[in-house]
Amino acid sequence: TCLQSGAEPNLADLNVYGILTAIEGSDAFQDLMNNTKIQPWFARMKNLVEPHRIDTSIMTILECIGCTLIVYGIPFSMFVFTIAHHPFRIIIAMTSAFFWLISMLLSSLLRFMVVPLRNQLAFAVLCAVLFQEIFRYLFYRVIKKAEFSLQKVQLQELTAKGMTFDRFAVAYAAGYGFGFISGTFSIVNVLSDTTGPGTIGIFGHSQDFFIATAFLTLTIILLNTFWSIIFFTSLDKGGIHRHLGPALVVITHMLFSCLTLLNRTTKPTYSIPIVNAFYNTSKMSSAAQRKKIAIVGSGNWGSTIAIHIADKIADLKDEYEQKILMWCKEETLDDGSKLTEVINEQHENIKYLPHERIPDNVIALPDLCESVKDADILIFVIPHQFVKKTCEELKNKVKPSAFALTLIKGFYIDEETNNILLVSQVIKNTLNIPCLSMMGANIAREVAEKVFCEATVGSRDDKHSETVRQLIDGPFFRIRVYPDVEIIEILGGLKNVIAMCAGFADGLNAGFNTRAAVLRLGFREMVNFCRLVEKESTAEIYLESCGIADLIASSLGGRNYNGAKKLAETNKSLKEIEKEDLNGQSLQGPGTAKEVYRFLQGRNLLDQFPMFRDAYLICEQKIKPHCLLENLTNHPEFQRK
Ligand SMILES: NC(=O)C1=CN([C@@H]2O[C@H](COP(=O)(O)OP(=O)(O)OC[C@H]3O[C@@H](n4cnc5c(N)ncnc54)[C@H](O)[C@@H]3O)[C@@H](O)[C@H]2O)C=CC1
Ligand SMILES: O=C(CO)COP(=O)(O)O
């Protein structure tokens, strides 16, 4: 040794002293003291160093706390923010952790049984990875079975408790459970070593051992979460993805685990799991970004559009979450069953769209807010008189980044200003999200039977238009987009009133020439009315499906037309007719006729719109339907120069 009496110890002294104190008390240490001349030097060093010694137990405990925070900090936040509030996810995570434990048990059993390879690390890695992946797959199968039963019998109950069956969340919670338990198993021993007696490199390895292991364990937890998401969502997607996703997971898991075999080469191996995690995060985030669709309404048109969209998105699995939530105002049917249960069990809306199969991925929910909670696209399709109340209930309950599309034909007149208040405006103003409109000649039953039709979409946002195109446009349902959101919507409401006029004319057995005049003059009033309110971007809009085509279709076979025809034939009130013929479906024409009448009256314009005026008065049974036909001769159209 070089430490002279009275001199300061140099680095070599400190180094050797550090090593000896680490083994102090052992046989080797005693041997050294007894059989060499090192003892006086050691005593001098002890005198000099001990007064300056930092309490190592505090240091090592701090290291243990630091490593624990590295390992569990992020997973803990993930748990608190994404799992803890969902009992269903907690159950999934715990069950998945249990599956991991069984996989490890079986893997150890196999290793133990194959005696020649028992001590080969590579064999252990192979067994561990294969068993984990087999159990990941088994877990997926079990959940798939459970999902089916849950949806069949318990959906309402689950929803009421905030336990919706969200496949992505299930994959996430399953991966989290798998990762958490696997990470915990690989770190607990290491963490206990961090508490002392010394934390300087094990077996001469890097001093960064503990911290590196902590980061690696965090990576294990995160990777397992990503792997389950990739694994489960790929299996859900089907096709080639069924094989690619799981293969990717098994390969990356194997590569990651094989790092164990490189332990002795130390440093560069740390970067591999980080690259792996990065790659998996990017794969996973694309799955997380899949847009969710909610349909607010499940009547005749609501159920039809749900079927249509479910068919459309079946080919767009990367972009759209396949499950479509459809809000269904709960009602008890004649046999005592609940409508939502019937829809989810029989996959048919036997009340509002009988004999049409609703795909399994359309789930009817009785809870309005639950149905739209995570939705990126909200499709409103309820009778217009319920829009204000429905939107009020949804206030502050929808994603701020979502957008809406209204298929509702009808509007309000603001009581204070006597101005038109469109459904799209109510949605926009109450929910604070943009709202597009789609109207056209779309008699629901025919759309459900895949009979060719077209529609007009009102949108001023190219991205949203593209989304609507993806969801709706197809070989038997073509759409055209215009920026005239409001005019499209007003036309949709007004045509119901003029279709009633066509019904009155047919009910009175009017001549074909007169029936044609009713349609032309009615269409003229529709255009003139729109021009009182909004300036169209182009007059072409009136020749689109939302204009002339919807009027023709509705006047040939719409519910409003049929109801009005029956009124003219029987003298019954529309309320009675609605009750007798429509089994809960709703005539939108009478309500709109009333609103239009009020709007025109407030502006002293009733004489300029005699058909709108008379339609309302007939609905109210204040005049007879023949008056409408008699008044055609003095229509203001004939005073026009
Ligand atoms: N049926 C069709 O062929 C077409 C309808 N439309 C329009 O779509 C809208 C919806 O029509 P449909 O789906 O046919 O409905 P519908 O006429 O079948 O009405 C029944 C629906 O109204 C719901 N409802 C009853 N009371 C309610 C309340 N208090 N709050 C909320 N919802 C309630 C019922 O739950 C049921 O889903 C209407 O504005 C209609 O003009 C547009 C194009 C085609
Ligand atoms: O809007 C419709 C077709 O485009 C349906 O009209 P009805 O509500 O009169 O059936």
**Largest sheet report:** 8 strands, mixed
Structural class: alpha/beta
What is the strand arrangement across the widest sheet? 3-2-1-4-5-8-9-10
Range of strand content: 5-15%
Supply the number of helical segments.
25
User: Which ligands are bound?
Assistant: 1,4-dihydronicotinamide adenine dinucleotide, 1,3-dihydroxyacetonephosphate
Give the secondary structure arrangement, pairings included.
Elements (H helix, E strand, L loop, with lengths): L10 H13 L3 H9 L2 H12 L6 H28 L3 H27 L7 H40 L6 H28 L14 H29 L3 H18 L12 H18 L2 E6 L3 H14 L6 E8 L11 H8 L15 E4 L2 H5 L4 E4 L6 H8 L8 E4 L4 E3 L6 E3 H9 L3 E5 L4 H5 L4 E6 L3 H11 L4 E6 L2 H23 L4 H22 L11 H13 L1 H12 L3 H9 L6 H14 L7 H10 L5 H6 L11
Parallel strand pairs: 1-2, 1-4, 2-3, 4-5, 5-8, 9-10
Antiparallel strand pairs: 6-7, 8-9
Short description:
The chain contains 25 helices and ten strands.
Description:
- With 641 residues, the protein is an alpha/beta fold.
- It has helices at 11-23, 27-35, 38-49, 56-83, 87-113, 121-160, 167-194, 209-237, 241-258, 271-288, 300-313, 339-346, 368-372, 387-394, 423-431, 444-448, 462-472, 485-507, 512-533, 545-557, 559-570, 574-582, 589-602, 610-619, 625-630; strands spanning 291-296, 320-327, 362-365, 377-380, 403-406, 411-413, 420-422, 435-439, 453-458, 477-482.
- Strand 6 and strand 7 form a beta hairpin.
- Helix 7 packs antiparallel against helix 8.
- The longest helix has 40 residues, at 121-160.
- The model is unreliable at 199-203 (pLDDT under 50).
- Bound molecules: 1,4-dihydronicotinamide adenine dinucleotide (NAI) and 1,3-dihydroxyacetonephosphate.
